[in-house]
Amino acid sequence: MTEERGNVLQQLKVSIDQEGFALESHPKLGPAEAAVQGVMLAGTVQYPKSVKESALQALAAAAKASVIISKNEIEREPFIALVNADVCTKCGRCIPVCPYGAILGEVRKNIEFVSAACQGCGTCVAECTVEGALTQEGFTDKQVIAQVDGALGENASEKVLIYACNWCSYAGADLAGVMKIQYPSNTRVVRTMCSGRVSQKLVMYAFSKGAGSVLVTGCHPGDCHYINANLQTEKRVERWKKQLEAKGVDPDRLQLWWVSAAEPKRFADKATEMSELISKLPPEELQSTTTKVKVRGA
Ligand code: SF4
Ligand code: SF4
Question: Is-contact 263 172, C-beta < 8 A?
C-alpha cells in the first residue's frame, strides 16, 4: 500500500485488511461501499483487479453516491451509541476505545457523542461501567440479555453460548448451516454488531445463569469491520478469564476465537471443542457456577 493511500484511508476511518487494502462493507450487500457510511470504493484500493472490473465497480459506487446526494436528508443505520447525560459520570473511559473518534470532550468536564461519526460497533458501551449511562440502539443490555435467557433456557450448564459479531463470525456460523457442516446441537448463537459490544456484564450474565461455556467470536485482527474494535475484545477477554478464575470458575470455560465469514469449518470445530470441554468438566464445577458468578442489576 502506498503511504498516500494509507493516509487517506486512515483519515476517512476506512477499515483495511492485513495487506492494507480497503475493506468493503459486505462482500454481497455492499461491495462498493466502505463500512464507514458515505465512503464508496472503486478499483484497486480494494484489491488488485482489472480495468473492466474497476470500471464496473466505479459505476456501482457512483450510483450509490448519487442516492445519497439526491436526498436532503441522510438515512443511517440506527445502531448508534446513546448516552444518558443524567447518569454519565464523565469518567472518559469510553473516549479512547472508539475507533472513529466519535467521542469527544474532557474527562470530568464534558463528554460529547458525535452521533454522525458513530458507526455503531458498541465498543464504548462495553467499556462503560456506569449502569444506564451508555447503550446501543438495537443492542441494549436488556435486549441482548433477553436473547441469552432464551438461548440458555433450561439445562444451561449443557449449553455453549456463542457471542458472534455480525460481519464475520455470525456469517461464518450461517455458512456452516448452509453448507450443512455439523456442530453440536447444544450450541447457541447470540449476535452483536461487533465483538467489541460484548461486555463483562454480558459474559458474566451468561455464567450467572449457569452457561456451560461462553465463546466470544469476532473478525480476525486486521479484518475488523470497525477498524480495530476487536482488539479491545482481546484485552477484555483476558481480563475476564482472570476474574472467573478468581471466583473459582475454570477460566477455559470462556474463550475468544476469530472466525471469518469464509471459515464455517473453523466455527464448527471450535463450537465442538467448547462442547467437549463442557462434557469433561466435573459436575460440581458446572453446578456451582450460578452461586460463584453474580451480576448486579441484571
Ligand atoms: S464511560 Fe460511561 S460514564 Fe464514563 S464518560 Fe463514557 S458514557 Fe460517561
Ligand atoms: S465506540 Fe462504536 S458505538 Fe461507540 S461511539 Fe464509537 S463508533 Fe459509536
Answer: yes
Angle formed at CA 123 by CA 117 and CA 124, multiple of 5 degrees: 75
DSSP element (H, E) containing 270: helix 264-280
Give me the domains of the chain, ranges plus CATH numbers: 3-69 (no CATH), 76-138 (3.30.70.20), 141-292 (3.40.50)
133 CB less than 6 Å from ligand 1?
A: yes
Would the CB of 209 count as within 6 Å of ligand 1? Answer: no
Q: Which three cell numbers stand for residue 85?
A: 447525560
State whether the beta carbon of 194 lies less than 6 angstroms from ligand 2.
Answer: no
Q: What is the pLDDT of residues 32-78, one digit of tens each?
A: 998 888 899 999 999 999 999 999 999 999 999 998 889 888 777 88
Furthest-apart CA pair in the chain: how many Å?
63
pTM above 0.85? yes
